[in-house]
């Protein structure tokens, strides 16, 4: 019944346009009563996004099932992949809906509010994982926004290409950029990672000197600069 | 006239609630006709956000006036500060509006669409600056989203605290996180920035050696490790 309503709605949206289609038109084509429509969908807008509530619930459950062993940035990237999977399951429907949301400002606004709810779900999870860390909430919000932006960049490219190619590969690549950027900072709460000659762990960032040099620089010159940097000259 | 309409509208929104206030109520209190209202504001929602169109225009002009010498991530952070300045100019009004948007779902949706337009303005600028770079559009979208999320994290903390404290300092701190994360990658499309002893510019990332050391490490030990890192031992 639910699927029949969605199918009837989209057939009419494509044929007549979204604004010109009423709920009465949809129920007439689907052969059901108005009450059945409103049992499944609070409004005409909701029939355009029939799967987002379920996907949000899946995402929330997925994040709630996380353990302390899950690297948090990787975990939110995996959660974002649930949204991609929903789109990729039915490419023709997803592309049709994408075109519709481009044309109807009200649907665009609805979509923004759905995206916002996904982003908040990811941010809330990260806030929990980063609790007690300096700027934990800030980092959580920024990383959640970066994940959503990367996911949507890849998803929209795929939708604009009419669902050609492998959406999963494109989204993996985009999320890889976010993971590379944030995985280390999210992993190491206290101080910049110390490595190299005397990387025995750093107490305060000021105690660490970073030297960047060309591999082919004369050693005497590097040492002289190093003395200056260490305040030994 | 415009300011008088905004003042009348907010007085009524606070006294009676947003939904219970009509455009007729607002114009009656302001002592003007309906036509005057609609000359300034397309709808009742728009009177809640009287300054965003102007701020969006300022931001677009600011970004359009950028030169090749502007570091792009820093530039979008500075553009975001224009939004903060608008909020900070009138703390009492900003806090009042913040409370109103928390209560009225329609205003929340409106606000999301405004935020989206700011984010797109920043992303479009970055897309232009990153044009021709691999994944330029992806990086532009992600960095724009990170800037907006950082800005809004600080702005909302300030609004929740009823406009206490210095919003500018909080936003600077939040944007600093984004700049630190992305400035290097955005600046140097080819290789990590070379600086320090022999930082004469690097051709290929492999040509650069990064040494991180504690300031109090014995110099002989640093030099020995440096020799190893440079492949001279």
UniProtKB/TrEMBL annotation, chains A, B:
Entry-linked InterPro entries: DNA-bd_HTH_TetR-type_CS, Homeodomain-like_sf, HTH-type_TetR-like_transc_reg, HTH_TetR, MftR_C
Residues of the DNA-binding region: 22-41
Region (Disordered): 186-205
Compositional bias ranges of the Low complexity kind: 186-197
Keyword set includes DNA-binding: yes
Record domain HTH tetR-type: where: 1-59
Transmembrane intervals: none
Organism domain of life: Bacteria
Classification via Gene3D superfamilies: Homeodomain-like (1.10.10.60), Tetracycline Repressor, domain 2 (1.10.357.10)
Pfam families documented for this protein: TetR_C_14, TetR_N
Keywords tagged on the record: DNA-binding
Protein's name according to its UniProt entry: TetR family transcriptional regulator
UniProt organism field: Streptomyces rameus
């Amino acid at each position: 019944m639910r699927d029949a309503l969605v199918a009837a709605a989209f057939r009419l949206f494509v044929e007549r346009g979204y604004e010109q289609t009423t709920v009465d038109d949809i129920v007439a084509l689907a052969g059901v009563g108005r009450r059945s429509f409103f049992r499944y969908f609070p409004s005409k807008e909701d029939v355009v996004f029939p799967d987002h509530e379920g996907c949000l619930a899946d995402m929330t459950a997925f994040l709630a099932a996380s353990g302390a062993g899950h690297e948090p940035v990787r975990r939110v990237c995996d959660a974002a992949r649930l949204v991609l999977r929903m789109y990729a399951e039915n490419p023709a429907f997803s592309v049709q809906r994408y075109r519709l949301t481009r044309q109807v400002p009200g649907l665009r606004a609805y979509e923004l509010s759905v995206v916002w709810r996904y982003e908040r779900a990811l941010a809330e999870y990260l806030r929990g994982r980063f609790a007690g860390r300096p700027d934990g909430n800030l980092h959580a919000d920024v990383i959640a926004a970066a994940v959503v932006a990367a996911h949507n960049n890849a998803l929209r490219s795929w939708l604009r290409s009419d669902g050609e190619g492998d959406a999963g590969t494109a989204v993996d690549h985009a999320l890889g950029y976010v993971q590379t950027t944030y995985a280390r900072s999210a992993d190491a709460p206290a101080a910049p990672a110390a490595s190299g000659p005397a990387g025995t762990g750093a107490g305060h960032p000021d105690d660490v000197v970073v030297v960047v040099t060309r591999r082919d620089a004369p050693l005497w010159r590097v040492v002289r600069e190093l003395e200056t940097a260490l305040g030994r000259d």
